[in-house]
Amino acid sequence: MTPTKETIKSAVIDVLKRIYDPEIPVNIYDLGLIYDIKIDDDLKVNILMTLTAPNCPVADSLPIEIRSNILMIEGVSNAAVDITFIPTWNMENISEEAKLELGLL
Known about the structure:
This protein is an alpha+beta fold. It has helices at about 5-15, 60-70, 95-100, and strands spanning about 35-40, 45-50, 80-85. The relative contact order is 0.21.
């Protein structure tokens, strides 16, 4: 099957759900660290994300881990991960499922 933007986006989300924040036992997608996933016509994936705090201990390594895992998805031509702190992350970003898991509901 030829990869499409939709199948790649689904695969990207699956990958992001397997990467965990080192300080909170929730994957980075459900934690709300991922602000945007764009896939262009050349099947390059662009991730816009934040961190729980600017001094996060994995600020340097997490984007590299994300990019390398996304590049393993069949059909992805390239990947970029950009970090932003606007808007800043807060507990409201966490998915309902993750809030239940953390006992926040």
